[in-house]
């Protein structure tokens, strides 16, 4: 069943998708559709019942559900259509709706199988959690091992307690948030473990989720074995050296009936692969430019599907940008740029997004360069964008941490310095 | 007696490390905060620390079995566990509005803080599940 072509189809109604859809309507796209597999909009936000969302975007300290609610209302009031309980199965090139047109095949109980024609697409599928299998933790396969996000869904949406006595592996934000949540619901969090010598999440969460509740945290420590046949009975933990190898003699058994894993998020790009979008192995997400256009004309992407963000406010900014350019593409086709510059991280910079830019785009306004470092430096540093030996821009930072993405702004005034550049590097100077 | 204490401010996601000098428990000087709110945070941590509490309460007859709730404003940190436990006894009837008042918990006698107001953070429609 084919439908009238949409100007922009957005896949995913999380913060990136809702912002992209709203921005597409603001930019003049007449028909904008968001496709969401869940029964309600908001992506992961409905289960993120804690506060800390919207401090920049709304100048308010909102919970996930409040933030999602506002964006859903903004989107609907702007004339965005939402198709809920609808799973996208396939994306392929279409010849009937413009040069970058695509056919999105989706299925839902109400409509059965539908084929949506889109002049432009925004991929906003978010990310998933790294599971135990990916970590290869030895031991038995008892019930009671959950990713922190699964536990969050069970507790906050479905009303189940996944255990009574928890060990949490990983000091990511979701793990810390759940340490607090479970304690408030009457469980005991025995210990939080982190394999690195520093925490992976925000320091505010270390205070308000771990220290406030006297939950012991062990750095440079990991789980080396799971015990229990039908149900988790305990874990063996060991300190590790700087090569993540367990140190002999530091084994300890911790009794618990549940193990929560908060060990990383992975952008969910199955649909991107189907759409033949080129992915960057450093981020796990698509190669994008300053418009958040992917390697496939007409296909844009935004939010955690590109790389994992720390703050929803940054995801929203990203979504707004992608939606604007997707709408422009639907109306006018591709931007006609000549020069293209690749940007990559140097040394201590792990990755940079976007991975390439068109310097001529600076006429439209600033271009955000987002990056993460590999190791923390708890001292003032300079973050620099270099073209060969020339400094394009330099910014003093009070510190850099892997858990906190840094954004540098390339301004229109920098355009002159980019003129003869072959490629750009982002690096940290002390 | 002069004392040095370190704080991590939780007002915004930056989490500034603030080093404070105290004299007999009172704040003399603090540095490390990127904005004025860091100073307010340290002062409050020393006298009457506050946090926002977020949790869920049960809903009867709603699309989902739980609705998320929050304290409208930060509440006394010392009472977090007490209030969280109290919320487990509450059952609302669907439909529920966003920012509907769930319960007002009076302040303790002699406390300097106000009453604690718990509100929902989303609406919940009547449904066949839950």
Key descriptive features of the protein:
heterodimer, A: 430 residues, alpha/beta, seven-stranded mixed beta sheet, five-stranded parallel beta sheet, 9 helices, 27 strands, 21% helix, 32% strand, globular, B: 130 residues, alpha+beta, three-stranded antiparallel beta sheet, 10 strands, 15% helix
In whole angstroms, how far apart are the ends of chain B? 58 Å
Strand tally of chain B: 10
Largest sheet of chain B: 5 strands, mixed
Oligomeric state: heterodimer
Task: Give a written overview of the molecule.
In chain A, the strands form 7 sheets. In chain A, strands 1, 2, 5, 6, 7, 8 and 19 form a 7-stranded mixed sheet that branches. In chain A, strands 10-17-11-12-13 form a 5-stranded parallel sheet. Chain A has a 5-stranded mixed sheet with strand order 22-20-27-24-25, with no helix packed on it. The N and C termini of chain A lie far apart (60 Å). In chain A, helix 1 (15-26) runs parallel beside helix 2 (64-77). Chain A has 9 helices and 27 strands. Chain A has helices at 15-26, 64-77, 132-135, 148-158, 173-184, 203-210, 270-274, 312-332, 415-418; strands at 6-11, 32-35, 51-53, 62-63, 81-83, 86-93, 102-108, 112-123, 127-129, 145-147, 165-169, 188-193, 217-218, 221-227, 234-239, 252-255, 258-261, 265-267, 299-301, 341-345, 349-353, 356-357, 367-373, 381-387, 390-397, 406-410, 423-429. By secondary structure, chain A is of the alpha/beta class. Chain B is of the alpha+beta class and 130 residues long. Chain B contains 2 helices and 10 strands. In chain B, strands 8-5-6-10-9 form a 5-stranded mixed sheet. In chain B, strand 2 (17-23) and strand 3 (26-31) form a beta hairpin. The longest helix of chain B has 12 residues, at 36-47. Chain B is elongated. The interface between A and B is medium-sized, with 34 and 33 residues.
